[in-house]
Amino acid sequence: MIHPEMRVSEVLQRYPALLDELIAASPAFAKLKNPLLRRTMPRLVSLAQAARMGGLEPQELVNRLNQALGLAANQTPQSSPESLSEAQSKLGTPSPTWLQATIGFHLDVRPILEAGGEPFQAIMEAAREVLPGQRLVLEAPFEPLPLYRVMSKKGFEAWCERIDEHYRVHFYRTPHPPQTTPAQGPSEPAQFNHDDWNRPDAVVQIEAQWEPPLPMQAVLEALSKLTPGQRLLVHHVRRPVHLLARLEQEGMPYELRDLGPNRVDLLIEKR
What are phi and psi of 268, to 5 degrees? Predict the structure, then answer.
């Protein structure tokens, strides 16, 4: 059974035949015919986010895919509050007045994704270089919806435009970013060494069959049992977008390692 929080990559790995169903659902999914985009975009984007990229309601797309698998509409899971609160697309919205602001950093994440890497840390490092009143310009093969919430918490406004076959996202650091307490400031760059990775204070194994929000709850519960300075190693089956946003909000340093299909390791330091 398919649910809105599943990564597109997970859906296509389990049910390859649904690629044609996705493409039929919206012309926006035709790009998945490209092997490169099929290797990068789907592993970062949930079905709920993909639906919005394609101009569909998340539940509409989930119902369609489940029905293609032979499930009746009343058997399909409903979108959780978490998925419903995801950022909306910035495409087609009015151009903001700050679009002419100075560019503080210009980052193209396409080479990182093409090499099979994870660009999140590079984006966070670039964001730290941007001063209030400046822009971070991001070139990406798809609209990074999960990033909007993370950047908003760091005091950035966002706007997106389509440039030929890719997306250009503008993040403007407002002159007066939201105030945060020292205990809940933005995360610092994680600098974990070999021993940190090999000698964590606790380990959590996320199982592929776990439905949201169980994976996040398991991680947060494990973190609650640690003392500040201790580290938790999480063996995950996908990039936990919502968990990363939570860690950013609470100022917990972390490092992510993408080890291949359905294998992501995450090391978190308790603050």
Answer: -125, 135
138, β-bridge pairs: 107, 169
- Listed residue (203, 188, 213) closest to 265, CA to CA: 203
Q: Is the pLDDT of residue 101 over 90?
A: yes
CA distance 141 to 168: 9
Token digits of residue 200: 């964590």
Place of tokens 């396409």: 110
Query: How many of the other CB atoms lie within 10 Å of CB of 270?
Result: 19
Distance CA 110, CA 61 (A): 27
Q: Distance between CA atoms of 183 and 181, rounded to whole angstroms?
A: 5
* Whole-structure pTM value: 0.52
Q: Are 71 and 1 in contact (CB under 8 A)?
A: yes
Band of residue 84 on the pLDDT scale cut at 50, 70, 90:
very low
Residue 36: CB atoms within 10 Å: 12
Angle at the Cα of 97 from the Cα atoms of 95 and 102, rounded to 5 degrees: 105
pLDDT in tens, 157-175: 999 998 887 889 999 999 8
